[in-house]
Design goal:
With 193 residues, the chain is mainly alpha-helical. It is built from 8 helices and 3 strands; from the N terminus they run H-E-H-E-H-E-H-H-H-H-H. Helix 3 packs parallel to helix 4, helix 5 packs antiparallel against helix 6 and helix 6 packs antiparallel against helix 7. The radius of gyration is 21 Å and the shape is globular. Bound molecules: flavin mononucleotide. The site of flavin mononucleotide (FMN) has 9 residues, from loops.
Length: 193
């Protein structure tokens, strides 16, 4: 850490595992705490990362380790709503008050956002196999009744070519690229915004 600090970086982000560990075991937040203590003696900012999946955990990690911030990876996959509570988290760190806000997200909203994501994917990654998007669709389908079936469909529906030319499910508009994406992921009945 002292070698890194000699370079006077603006920010250092620390993941609490070694390269050899990959995702095995738990991130070592005590090591992050020790590193943060050193960084805190300099103008560099320090961010911690590893196994944080809720905003209350963010607050807890900042309190325990004195990092300036926390990075969230897998906790945001299929769950971009996690960041809705960031203002709450900031407030907790200065003036602990209210309980964490409810982050219940309606299934319809989940599906709308998944559809939007799929549209972006098809727009940005022309020619890239849709397989890369399927896992994200699966991550959106968690934590509500019927989610397992939807995940199953996300991974097994046939490729888009079989659906081209389908009539739209509603509103009489043409089928958009992302709609093909969601149709082949199995969301035909529930996802149309
Ligand atoms: C889909 C995905 C892609 C990632 N890509 C990178 C990457 O390109 N470079 C990197 O240093 N870490 C990458 N990571 C690791 C994350 O930045 C993070 O350190 C790790 O997921 C642990 O944090 P988490 O427990 O919040 O997921 C990636 C993680 C995931 C899940």
């Amino acid at each position: 850490m002292s070698t890194l600090l000699e370079e006077q970086p603006e920010v250092i982000a620390i993941h609490g595992r070694t390269l050899a560990q990959m995702y095995r075991g738990r991130a070592d937040w005590d090591a992050i705490r020790r590193a943060a203590k050193l960084v805190r003696e300099t103008p560099t900012l320090v961010l911690g990362n590893g196994d944080v999946v809720t905003m209350p955990q963010v607050v807890q990690r900042v309190r325990e380790t004195q990092v300036h911030g926390v990075l969230i990876g897998r906790g945001a996959l299929g769950n971009p709503w996690i960041f809705r509570a960031k203002a709450w988290a900031r407030q907790q760190l200065s003036t602990p008050t209210a309980e964490a806000p409810s982050l219940d997200v309606a299934v319809r909203e989940r599906c709308q956002v998944a559809l939007e994501h799929a549209r972006y994917f098809e727009g940005l990654h022309d020619g890239v196999p849709f397989q890369a998007m399927r896992k994200h669709l699966g991550w959106y389908c968690r934590g509500f009744p019927g989610a397992a079936d939807m995940r199953h469909n996300c991974s097994r529906r046939p490729p888009p070519e079989t659906l081209h030319g389908c009539s739209p499910p509603s509103r009489g508009r043409g089928v958009q690229p992302g709609e093909h994406a969601m149709r082949r992921a199995g969301h035909r009945d529930v996802c149309w915004p």
